[in-house]
């Protein structure tokens, strides 16, 4: 007579007896990963999706049980508790050895599945390095529909993960039109601080001594680098900007928010440079980023550097007309413009 497994009414069949596929286990692992590593909203959504998926069939429910077991067993302590060395039974050494190998096989499979799931969750889903040269403006649409536009002379590394979007800006400036995604906040990191958003339109610009952030739409949180050299994004932001506000972070700290015209944020994308009480050296540096030809570059007279640093420039100028800017500059500030070796040199008025 052949033996046949029977199930007591009201009991759940063994997860392994139902034989879920690896694909089903992998799907369950991906949902479990979201419950562990997403933010609160994403984790709750993943938990609901997992519960619904479990309820669709006994096999999927079994796959989720196995996936949960694999995930838990990537913790070394949990694995040690489950994979105990079996005691030797006199007269049955082979049975003991087989039992130990079976346990170790299950544990090894758990490490493989759980470890792969965690590594997969932590791996980037999209990476991109973008760079522009002098006089070059580069728009780029990202996989989520967000649009980043690089100002001239800009370097940025973009990395998308399953639970966040990261930009590492090492030089230049960005205009970002961010698609909202509460499960994947977007951040921009620089040497002077960090910016974090969910969905908004804003700019970040690096200069020699600081970082400028301006918001055209939405809200942006800004953290300045602290005296210990770190950016503490685990704490409350130093300032939260709304539309029509801008702020500057410097090595010594962060300034007070200033009012700006939302339409002026990122106006360089449309061929305009907008300055609002901008230090003259900073304005000249921005002009030079937009001028591709060396002969068009502007510089300040070395002997007058201290005097020129104290001047502030306000106005809106077309990028296509640097000559017009230079011609009108002496009417706005106490300076004079002369030519040396084909370049414009700006000197203090004496």
UniProtKB/TrEMBL annotation:
Known InterPro entries for this protein? FecR, Ferrdict_sens_TM
- Taxonomic classification, please? Bacteria, Pseudomonadati, Pseudomonadota, Betaproteobacteria, Burkholderiales
All copies of domain FecR protein, residue ranges: 130-220
Q: Spell out the Polar residues composition-biased ranges.
A: 1-14
Pfam families according to UniProt: FecR
The entry lists its GO molecular-function terms as: kinase activity; sigma factor antagonist activity
Q: Which residues cross the membrane?
A: 100-117
Protein's organism: Pandoraea pneumonica
> What keywords does the record list, in alphabetical order?
Kinase, Membrane, Transferase, Transmembrane, Transmembrane helix
Q: What is this protein called?
A: Histidine kinase
Q: Which domain of life is it from?
A: Bacteria
* Ranges where the record places region Disordered: 1-20
């Amino acid at each position: 007579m052949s033996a046949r497994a029977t199930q007591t009414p009201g009991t759940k069949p063994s997860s392994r007896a139902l034989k879920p596929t690896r694909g089903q286990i992998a799907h369950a692992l991906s949902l479990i990963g979201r419950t562990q590593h997403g933010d609160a909203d994403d984790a709750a959504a993943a938990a609901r999706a997992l519960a619904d998926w479990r309820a669709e069939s006994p096999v999927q429910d079994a796959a989720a049980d196995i996936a949960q077991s694999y995930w838990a067993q990537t913790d070394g302590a949990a694995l040690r508790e489950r994979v105990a060395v079996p005691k030797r039974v006199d007269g049955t050494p082979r049975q003991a050895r087989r039992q130990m190998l079976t346990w170790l096989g299950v544990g090894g499979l758990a490490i493989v599945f759980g470890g792969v799931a965690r590594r997969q969750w932590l791996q980037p889903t999209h990476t991109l390095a973008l760079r522009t040269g002098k006089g070059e403006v580069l728009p780029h649409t990202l996989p989520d529909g967000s649009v980043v536009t690089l100002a001239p002379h800009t370097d940025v590394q973009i990395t998308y993960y399953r639970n966040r979007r990261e930009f590492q800006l090492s030089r230049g400036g960005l205009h970002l039109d961010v698609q909202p995604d509460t499960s994947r906040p977007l951040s921009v990191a620089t040497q002077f601080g960090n910016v974090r958003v969910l969905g908004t339109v804003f700019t970040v610009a690096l200069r020699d001594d600081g970082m400028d952030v301006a918001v055209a739409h939405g809200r942006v949180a800004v953290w300045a680098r602290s005296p210990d050299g770190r950016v503490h994004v685990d704490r409350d932001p130093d300032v939260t900007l709304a539309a029509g506000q801008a702020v500057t972070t410097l090595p010594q700290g962060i300034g007070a928010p200033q009012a700006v015209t939302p339409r002026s944020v990122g106006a360089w994308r449309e061929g305009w440079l907008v300055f609002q009480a901008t230090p003259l050296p900073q304005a000249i540096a921005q002009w030079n980023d937009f001028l591709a030809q060396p002969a068009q570059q502007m510089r300040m007279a070395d002997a007058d550097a201290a005097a020129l640093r104290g001047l502030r420039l306000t106005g809106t100028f077309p990028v296509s007309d640097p000559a017009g800017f230079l011609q009108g500059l002496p009417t706005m500030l106490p300076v004079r413009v002369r030519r040396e070796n084909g370049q414009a040199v700006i000197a203090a008025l004496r």
